[in-house]
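Journal club prep, notes for RB
We'll compare a predicted complex against what the paper describes. Inputs for the adenosine-5'-diphosphate case:
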Amino acid sequence: MVIIMLGAPASGKGSVAEILSKEFGIPQVSTGDIFRKYISNGSEIGKKANEYMTKGELVPDEVTVQIVASRLEEPDVENGLILDGFPRTVNQAKALDELLAKKGKKIDLVINLEVPEEELLDRITTRRICTNKECKAVYNLKLHPSKVEGICDKCGSTLEQRDDDKLEKAKNRLIVYHRETAPVADYYKDTGALYSTTLSVSINRMKDEVAHDVIEYLKK
Ligand code: ADP
Ligand code: ZN
């Protein structure tokens, strides 16, 4: 099963993907996480990606498609995967169709998480991440704060704000999202795989409920 998570930064893609990954027993593949791993290893790809990520820009398609192509060669994705943060441009979506076709796979479901525009910036800037690379738990100062401020509930490490979640960079990421990524949902509309749903605080739809709806939807 191949599932794609679409949505703005901090829309909840990663959190919903994590629940679905456990439910279906298929790995969650986040291009943002892969890039951050390359950056902390000090590799060439990491250096290149970092130039764009620190500005809140997208890493060029050639680089991104290449890392996804090699990830698709790994044995653990044989039975499927949940892509979280890829594709983010229509070109990436087209490249993914080709990559999957070569492997005899196709996209089963594209989940588009819609968050009201007025909530987006707030959700990004109040996000906090566990600094323990093995844990990477995600919190939000308002929506789901840690029990002790600044400390991860799961592993006790300190929490930090991702550099690109700071206000000015977050604003730029939203501009880039509207320009490059929002059209990807339209691309999938025609294929019939698109499932749009709202993950919003104002109407109280939390990640577990959305994941539950998706599981029910897939059973039908
Ligand atoms: P978020 O969860 O807030 O959307 P991610 O961790 O998915 O953030 O992505 C962080 C950054 O990594 C992006 O702003 C971008 O610079 C880079 N990135 C991640 N995925 C892609 C992609 N598919 N194409 C280009 N750049 C990407
Ligand atoms: Zn932790």
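Talking point for the session: Helices lie at 13-24, 31-41, 44-53, 61-71, 90-102, 117-125, 167-189, 207-219.
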